[in-house]
Amino acid sequence: MKQIYLRYLVLAEALRKSSIDLSGIDDIGKNLLETIAIKSAQGQPLVVTQTMGLSDIASPATIHRRITLLLKLGLIEVVKAENNQKIKFLVPTKSSIDYFEKLGKLMASVSKPGAT
Question: What CATH fold (topology level) applies to the domain 2-111?
Answer without folding.
Answer: Arc Repressor Mutant, subunit A (1.10.10)
